[in-house]
Amino acid sequence: MSHSTGSRRKICVVVNSRANYGRIKTVLRSITEHPRLELQLVIGASALLWRFGNVSEVIARDGFSPVATVYSIVEGETPTTMAKSTGLAIMELATTFENIRPDVVLTVADRFETIATAIAGAYMNIPVAHTQGGEVTGSIDESVRHAVTKLAHIHFPATALAAENLVRMGEERATVHLTGCPSIDVLAALDLSLRADFFSGGKGVGATIDPSRRYVVVLQHPVTTEYGNGLKQIRETLSAVLRIGLQAIWLWPNVDAGSDDISKGLRQFREQHPSAPIHFYRNFSVEDYARLIYHASCLVGNSSSALREGSFLGVPAVNIGTRQAGRERDENVRDVGYEARDIERAVHFQIDHGRYRRSTRFGDGHAGKRIADLLATSTFQVQKRLSFGDHV
């Protein structure tokens, strides 16, 4: 199947969130620079919403122009609205794909918007490429990731174990390419020094942060399979961070079901503790986020960035709860439950320990180019079959 003009293959990449963009930025750049590829960027879901960082503005500053935007988020941040948002995204993306006629659709990781992209593409006989398949985690992301794998026609896993998991799931070995995670590319090529004015400029709300003093970075998302517990969970984390006493940079949660509870807890805390040494941000650019976490004394919460980018940078991390349960990790990560005292003890341990050795488990800094080259040269068969190969 090909709708290309000339010899350039049209690659549609759907960016739906700030994390989504961080995981795919270098691939966008590599596709743009490849002589045999044409980028069709589609921006949708929370990437278009101000309260989740308005990532579309960051994307524009980086020089990327979308061919389409897709509004698909149903407000409420409940399991019901999450399911409805997925359905709406399928409908809107189907129309978009019909209009732009891509040769390949590239979808990222394991979010509910990701499965909408894969479903629309697969039903329209458009080859689907998938990054970060084969990994194991908690929450609904675990189910979504593997469902997307079964819809995808070519796979770009981040780790060797993830690549083997894909083959064990019945994917043709020839379609599984160990590329590493594109988010590591940014770190490998970046000047990570922190400017003296890094925290100035009036962004976010809260205490003034002094970059010459130690700080922790906190990012805790809702766990959709524990919906209804988010407010209690975030209060425990807030209590722990307050007692630790260091400066804290706290990023707003994503749009998953339960986000409203997390946000409510953060707003209540701000009203009750106006002098707490915490500054709340909606978003950072990909590069500034890398600089931010590189200089942190500890990463706290349940974001995969603590396990992925954090391991490459050797930053101490405390992973809270079940959202990353089962995901590969390195020695920089210490796991705890949701109790404030356990979080506090773990953070103190990590701060006292200091930096860890750099790990290249999730990539070596060249994933974007590898993925672009594979998108340009691979052949695709839209009819899939289970393949058990040497596992029979």
Fold topology:
Elements: E1 9-15, H1 18-22, H2 25-33, E2 37-44, H3 55-61, E3 68-70, H4 79-100, E4 104-108, H5 112-123, E5 128-131, H6 141-151, E6 154-156, H7 160-168, H8 182-189, E7 205-206, E8 215-219, H9 230-244, E9 247-251, H10 259-272, E10 278-281, H11 286-294, E11 298-301, H12 309-313, E12 317-320, E13 333-336, H13 340-353, H14 367-377
Parallel strand pairs: 1-2, 1-4, 2-3, 4-5, 5-6, 8-9, 8-11, 9-10, 11-12, 12-13
Antiparallel strand pairs: 7-10
Helix pairs in contact: 2-14, 4-5, 5-6, 9-10, 9-13
Q: For the CA atoms, what is the radius of gyration?
A: 20 Å
Strands side by side in the biggest sheet: 7-10-9-8-11-12-13
Give start-end ranges of low-pLDDT stretches: none
Q: Approximately what portion of the residues adopt beta-strand conformation?
A: 5-15%
| CATH class placement of the largest domain | Alpha Beta
Written account of the structure:
This protein is of the alpha/beta class and 392 residues long. It folds into 2 domains: 9-181 and 363-391, 3-Layer(aba) Sandwich (Rossmann fold), CATH 3.40.50.2000; 205-353, Rossmann fold, CATH 3.40.50.2000. The protein has 14 helices and 13 strands. Strand 4 (104-108), helix 5 and strand 5 form a beta-alpha-beta unit. It is globular, with a radius of gyration of 20 Å.
Properties at a glance:
about 400 residues; Rossmann fold; 2 domains; six-stranded parallel sheet; 14 helices; about 40% helix; about 15% strand
